[in-house]
UniProtKB/TrEMBL annotation:
Lineage per the UniProt record: Bacteria, Bacillati, Actinomycetota, Actinomycetes, Micrococcales
Source organism (scientific name): Sanguibacter antarcticus
Stored Pfam families: AIM24 (PF01987)
InterPro entries from the UniProt entry: AIM24, AIM24_sf, Trp_RNA-bd_attenuator-like_dom
Name the record gives this protein: Uncharacterized protein (AIM24 family)
Amino acid sequence: MTMELANDKVVRVSVQQGQQVLARKGAMLYYTGDVRFTPHSMGGGGGFPGAGAMVGMAGRMMQGEHVALMVAQGQGEVFYGRDGLHVELVQMDGSQVLTVEASRLLAYEGHLQTSIVPLTSQGGVRGAVRGAMTGQGLFTTQMTGQGTVAILSHGGVVPLTVGGYSGEIVIDPQAYVGHLGQITVDLSASVGFRDVVGRGSGEATQLKLTGQGTAWVQASEQKF
């Protein structure tokens, strides 16, 4: 399977027999060849004959973040996009974990492993507070394996190196897209009197990223 950008808002996936691509339901723009599309069932792999348990598990977990999935199988090319949002391809070599909200996922290779992780596992109570204050919620999605993932953003993304000479990175919560590698995300809040009375800078709450890896920041503070 190959996944590449048709332009900065559309991804093209070449599907071969025996392969599967998972994508957001309703994200298919057009396709060529003999390709079949099957909505994923909350019951697991039973929603599409022949699909593996791994794909079923991925679907159930993404459903936990309220994102409906569709599986494409067969032989041909499928083009995906959503609402004119920008698409970024993340290449995973199997050695690192990709952390991204399910709402950011456009499509990914079906053999990748996906899990829903509570934010409490990333800092205990501070993780839960972070999710509540940033609007992220209480869970996030983690992906492992070797393959390609297409993620969405407003206005495109900037990749940032975390660690090494760059040290820690501080990101606006609304601009944060995801990260790859051994990175810890913590809430950094500095709320003063002016923020309480509504006359602050509007930047009182931020995300502090430490560790080693790559983080992506979108060119907008608009979430979706």
